[in-house]
Model the fold of this input.
Amino acid sequence: MEETAFKFFTDHTSSIEVVWHEKKEKIFFPKLPCCNYKNKKIEDRFLAKIIRDNVKTKVLSLTNKENSIKSFMQAEESLVFFVSSHFF
Done:
């Protein structure tokens, strides 16, 4: 049972590391189902467009670009469901 729970947790969560009060902390959060539909090409393009001049611009850049990649993944998810429900 523990192995099943661990697999579920690792498959359905992601994490980031942040510096908070001069200490590095790992923050876990649930993955949206559409995250299963991202591909390497889109991820690389997304990461290449992030401005990393300083922490503020990095956060702003990430949040500004987040909606476009999320919309793409949701469209991919919808397409997969449409095709699987109509053709298979």
User: Anything to note?
Assistant: Residues 1-31 form one domain. Residues 17 and 41 are 24 Å apart (CA to CA). The helical segments are 2-12, 40-48, 55-87. The radius of gyration is 16 Å.
